[in-house]
Amino acid sequence: MGGLKDELLKAIWHAFTALDLDHSGKVSKSQLKVLSHNLCTVLKVPHDPVALEEHFRDDDEGPVSNQGYMPYLNKFILEKVQDNFDKIEFNRMCWTLCVKKNLTKSPLLITEEDAFKVWVIFNFLSEDKYPLIIVPEEIEYLLKKLTEAMGGGWQQEQFEHYKINFDDSKDGLSAWELIELIGNGQFSKGMDRQTISMAINEVFNELILDVLKQGYMMKKGHRRKNWTERWFVLKPNIISYYVSEDLKDKKGDILLDENCCVESLPDKDGKKCLFIIKCFDKTFEISASDKKKKQEWIQAIHSTIHLLKLGSPPPHKEARQRRKEMRKKLLAEQEELERQMKELQAANESKQEELETVRKKLEEAASRAAEEEKKRLQTQVELQARFSTELEREKLIRQQMEEQVAQKSSELEQYLQRVRELEDMYLKLQEALEDERQARQDEEMVRKLQARLLEEESSKRAELEKWHLVQQQAIQTTEAEKQELEHQRVMKEQALQEAMAQLEQLELERKQALEQYEGVKKKLEMATNKTKSWKDKVAHHEGLIRLIEPGSKNPHLITNWGPAAFTQAELEEREKNWKEKKTTE
């Protein structure tokens, strides 16, 4: 029921948007009342005008949005819908409301009736989200079906070129863009209007009316036992037969269920290519036009009964669901891949930031080490200059003291005091040298720290390259799976071509066997004629002879002309002798 509701909502959405004249997303209440009444009529839902008035009775006399109309639509219409209404009539009512506003005014190769069928097919193939669109994959599926129905060859390169020029800002086409695409003949060049119309009708019958197979066949009557040509239409649970393919005069139905079966019959009563459909209370004998049609109908009916046993939907609906699930799966995989790529990119950026931070720290440490080295060298130069000056000064003082030692003994104490000062200065110089050694050790520690930071940078870079390799392997794995799927598709196409070649070979062998059968049949007829003529002569001759012989005591054979001229035993003996003679010849 949920699937039926979704399909109905798509057509109702078209009608609602058509009533929204100013594109504000709202429709006047009077128009919605008329729309609701029409929906109840075509969907065969009891109309409740009181509930309609109650739902739209409020202080606001303005328009009602789509969201405001949905509660009433669900409660009073869609939840009461049964599968007993005319879907074509329902779609045509919604089409009538929206066609004048949206259908292009430019001339198209298709009629308005064909455009209506394309519109209904669009609703069937469109995605379950609004505004409604049909994605390129479903467009390709529909165009392939139309091309096959027209008997043409699918131009994949032309469609790929069309997809390349497709507007990237849109995920698909609207119903009216699809009608214009099919109507302008871009993918049906060389085809006339009637061929295109017949192709649209065939695809419409299959996808919308669930027609699995249709065609003319002979049916044996149940009362008069006469054979009459009928137009048969196979659907998922019924076979209807009509006087002609216009479907105006319906003659009956064959209800199918899981207990029905279809079997091939040998030719009889001058009818060929026979098969029988066995149902619970009736059997139906049908004659196809040729063996190929017979086999196709038996296979189609058998597949339909098998689907009824499994409770599966029709093949085209099941295929549509599989395509949607495949698109959802691919979208989920793409989103997961994008998420992984974003995570890898974020991790990469984080690593880059960490490396940049480490690099800045290393540069700062190197700058500090350079400044300390510069200060140390400057201090060393100053100490050396100071030491040299002090040494020169000490030499000068010693020379002065040696000159004055004899004369000034009082200056000896000053000299000794000066020596002590020099010793203190020497100790200070030793401390300065110790400080220089300590500075060298600090420099060595900074160099080791720099080496360790460089090693950590190398390990971080290796880890980053490892993540990059994992990313490349993931991309290669995805490409390999894609190539494998493409290889499987190519293999299936080759298998299909081989099967078609085998079918053509079998058809050729069947024709040759039929020609041989006709030749043998003619020879058999000639031999039968000769045998009959010879039997008449022998019978006549033997009859004349037996007339003058005495009658046998055994009982005589009775023919249409009276008693026979010979007994049963004599007849069997004569037939035996004749067969032996015929064999020796």
Automatic annotation (TrEMBL):
Q: Annotated Gene Ontology MF terms?
A: ATP binding; DNA binding
Can you cite a GO biological process for this protein? regulation of protein localization
SUPFAM superfamilies assigned: EF-hand (SSF47473), PH domain-like (SSF50729)
Q: Supply the PROSITE patterns for this chain.
A: PH_DOMAIN
Q: CDD domains attached here? A: PH_SWAP-70
> Which SMART domains does the protein's record reference?
PH
Output the Pfam families linked to this UniProt entry.
EF-hand_SWAP70_N, PH
InterPro entries linked? EF-hand-dom_pair (IPR011992), EF-hand_SWAP70_N (IPR057836), PH-like_dom_sf (IPR011993), PH_domain (IPR001849), PH_SWAP70 (IPR057837)
Keywords of this entry = Cell membrane, Cell projection, Coiled coil, Cytoplasm, DNA-binding, Membrane, Nucleus, Phosphoprotein
Instruction: Spell out the GO cellular component terms annotated for this protein, sorted alphabetically and separated by semicolons.
Output: actin cytoskeleton; cytoplasm; lamellipodium; nucleus; plasma membrane; postsynapse
Q: Where is the PH domain?
A: 210-306
Q: Which Gene3D superfamilies match?
A: Pleckstrin-homology domain (PH domain)/Phosphotyrosine-binding domain (PTB)
Q: Which residues form a coiled coil?
A: 316-530
Q: Where in the cell is it found?
A: Cell membrane; Cell projection, Lamellipodium; Cytoplasm; Nucleus
For this UniProt entry, what is the primary localization, expressed as one broad class? Answer: membrane
Q: What does this protein do?
A: Phosphatidylinositol 3,4,5-trisphosphate-dependent guanine nucleotide exchange factor (GEF) which, independently of RAS, transduces signals from tyrosine kinase receptors to RAC. It also mediates signaling of membrane ruffling. Regulates the actin cytoskeleton as an effector or adapter protein in response to agonist stimulated phosphatidylinositol (3,4)-bisphosphate production and cell protrusion.
**Subunit structure as annotated in this protein's UniProt entry:** The SWAP complex consists of NPM1, NCL, PARP1 and SWAP70.
Protein's recorded name:
Switch-associated protein 70
Q: Which organism is it from?
A: Marmota marmota marmota
Q: Which lineage is the organism of this entry classified under, starting from the top rank?
A: Eukaryota, Metazoa, Chordata, Craniata, Vertebrata
Q: Which gene encodes it?
A: SWAP70
